[in-house]
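Hi F.,

I've been meaning to write this up properly since the lab meeting, where we talked about keeping a consistent format for the predictions we share between groups. The idea is simple: the sequence comes first, exactly as it goes in, then the structure tokens exactly as they come out, then a line or two of notes. No screenshots and no reformatting. I'm using this chain as the first example so we have something concrete to point to.
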Amino acid sequence: MTDTILGVVLAFIAGAINAGGLLAIGQYTSHMTGIVSAVADNLALGLFGVVGAGIIALIAFTAGAGCSAVLINWGRRNARTRQYAYPIALEALLLLAFGVLGTASRDAPQFMVLAAPLLCFIMGLQNATITKISGARMRTTHLTGMVTDIGIELGKYLYWHRDKTKAEALRVTADRKKLGILLRVVGMFFLGGVVGALGFGHLGYVFSIPLAGILMVMAVPRLVSDAVGRAPGA
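Output, unedited:
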């Protein structure tokens, strides 16, 4: 599976979790900009309980990213061909747990306390994974950087100065391949948001299960094929 295909699939998953999570738990969880801003606002307003929840969400996202780095670096030393399958499989298991526990809990206060940090951990895990896979060319849980890059490439594409007599270093040319990838990732995040909102809106937490299934489809074949290849006599 190419980096681009993996990126657009993960963007779809992130969009679905972010939009669907708002309906399920009343909070966006895929990007930290809004959460950090909310912490600052609530701190200024003296809403310290809400500030604590925001800080926990931030820590959970950071911990998820750190977990991805640990799994990938361990994989590089011990199972290089499946290093990225580990965090994707873990994301699938955690998303499955979110769906099962959420469905069983029926909005129990105990689960709701854990729901937002769990989704933030999942999003941090995913974002760090695609960052490592793509060499920091793609992010899948937030769009600010990618939309900025789209604007830059469009600006380069529309730039009026196209004098080919100038030195190569002075020519302005857009990276059409990069632009195409960015547009696909942003488009899939939006599509995932629509599907996630509809899915969580109609089915509730159980809609996490098919999303986890998509991740498993990406991770399990790699894990299984490598396990078979390592088997004695293979």
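Notes:
The two ends are 23 Å apart (CA to CA).
The mean pLDDT is 84.

If this format works for you, I'll send the rest the same way.

G.
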